[in-house]
Description:
- By secondary structure, the chain is α+β, with helices and mostly antiparallel strands.
- 30% of the residues lie in helices and 30% in strands.
- The chain has two helices and seven strands, in the order αβββββββα.
- β2 (41-44) and β3 (47-49) form a beta hairpin.
Amino acid sequence: MSGIAVTTGLCLMACTLVQRAAALAGYAAVIRGGDGLEDGGLFLPHGRYGHYWCEVSSGGEHYVVDITADQFGCAPVIVRPAYAPDWPRYVPGDQVLVDSHVAELLEDYAKSAAQ
């Protein structure tokens, strides 16, 4: 565990940080996610979960970067090939929906900063 009391609900916020850090380092990063039910998510042997993570591209390879996986009993930071067949499995959901969630969060950030 990371030592942070609660990371539940922080995955999308964390993804914006990872995406920005990746961009500053010259990598392309896309925020992915799913609801854990019918539209992707984080799949583990003991269940499926709604979650967000980043997919970072480097040299034609794609990697999952997840800094809030500890809320599901995983390592606090996961960096692995995006489509690895072992656990945990990251299954991207509807990208249009994910992008709309990201846009809403960034809009909220902008409103908070303006106050």
